[in-house]
Amino acid sequence: MTAIALTIAGSDSGGGAGIQADLKTFSALGVYGASVITALTAQNTRTVARVQPAGPAMIAAQIATVFDDLDIRAVKLGMLGDGPAIRAVAEGLAGRDLPIVLDPVMVAKSGDALLADDAIDGLRALLLPRATLLTPNLPEAARLTGTPPARSRDQMHGQALALMQMGAQAVLLKGGHGQGPQCHDLLMTPDDGPRWLSAPRHATRNTHGTGCTLSAAIAAELAKGWPLQDAVAAAHCYLQGAIAAADSLTVGQGHGPVHHFHAVWPHA
To answer: CB neighbours of 190 closer than 8 A, spacing ≥ 6?
Structure first.
C-alpha cells in the first residue's frame, strides 16, 4: 500500500520550511504527502513579514476531510501558531491511533516568533501527551521546561527526561544551536538509554527548515512502518545529506533552504 504521511503546519511562502519543506521531504523519501495548513506566512529567507492564522473551524475541517478519505500512517505537527489552533488539532487527532511527530515550532530562523507565548501551556497540556516523538531544539526545550538552554550533554539529558515526564513518549533533543565542530542530537525513549546521534557541523548559513525537514523525514519513515529508532537514524542521515548539499542551491539572500532533493538533483 502507498505510504501516506500528513503534515499539519504553517505555509512558508519562501518554500524552505513549513508545509513546503515537509511535502518536499515526504516526496524525496518516497512517501505521499497530505497537508493541513494552520497559517499563511509572508516569508522569505530573511524575514517573516506577516502571519495570518487559519481559523480553528478550517483546521478542523481539513483534518476531518483528509482522514475521511486517506489512509494516513503518520502525522507531523509543525507550526501551530496559537491556542485555538492547538485545540483544533488536538480535537481533530483525538482517538486516532497512529504515530505523531511533534516539532514544537516557536521561532523562525530569522528570529521571528511563530508561536504565541500564551499558547505554550496548551502545547504542553494537549499535544505533548499525544506525541510519539517530540523534536525540540535547545531553545524550544528550554521554553517548554522553563529552564535555561542546555549547554552540556548532561543538561540535554536532564531536559529530555523532564519532557518525557511532561508526557512525551519519546524525545529527540536537537543540538544544532550548540557549539563546537560536532552537532549532537539526543534520542530518549522509554525502552532504551540515551542514544546520541552526532555529525560534523557544516559551515553553511543555508539551514532554513532543518527542524521541519528532520521531523517530516521521521514521520515519513514511520509511515513506511519503520520502528522509531530506525526512523530517527534514517531521517538524521537524510538531513545531513540535505545540509551538506545546501550550498549547491542559490535561493534567496538570507538563510537559504537545505537541499531536499540532494539524492535526485545533480549538485556540485
So the answer is: 164, 169, 170
Find where cell 496548551 sits.
122
pLDDT digits (tens, 9 = 90+) for 109-158: 555 666 777 788 899 999 999 999 999 999 899 989 999 999 899 999 99
Task: Please provide the distance, in angstroms rounded to a whole number, between the alpha carbons at the two ends of the chain.
Answer: 36
Alpha carbons 208 and 206: distance in angstroms, whole number: 6
Q: What is the CATH number of the domain that holds 217?
A: 3.40.1190.20
What's the structural domain count of the chain? Answer: 1
For 54-69, write each residue's pLDDT tens digit: 999 999 999 999 999 9
Q: Which of 164, 109, 112, 158 is nearest to 133 (CA)?
A: 164
Cβ-contact 186, 196 below 8 angstroms: yes
* Residues recognised as catalytic: 174, 207, 209-212
Q: How many CA atoms lie within 13 A of 10 on its CB side?
A: 31
80: cell is 501551530
- E strands, 132-233, are 133-134, 171-173, 182-188, 195-200
Q: How many Å apart are CA 62 and CA 69, to the nearest integer?
A: 11
129: cell is 501527551
For residue 262, being part of any structural domain is answered with: no
Give a yes or no: residue 165 inside a domain.
yes
